[in-house]
């Protein structure tokens, strides 16, 4: 997979965030880049845990989580990767169909 300079910086910053939050970056990989230079999904190599990183318009790189309501997904900014993982509705976690 070829990645741009912006995506390389997003990956580097994400691995630094993982380290700061107590994760081993060697256990994570880029799963997909659905929006070039803006959005990346990272997946844990040992299970199905994943989170999204978004590059904001101002260049800030932030973790995001997805909530699902009535079958529609909404991306929400998280304070940390841990929060993004814990609050995500993907894979039946926290799923709320109200």
UniProtKB/TrEMBL annotation:
It comes from the Bacteria. This is Uncharacterized protein. It comes from Companilactobacillus nodensis DSM 19682 = JCM 14932 = NBRC 107160.
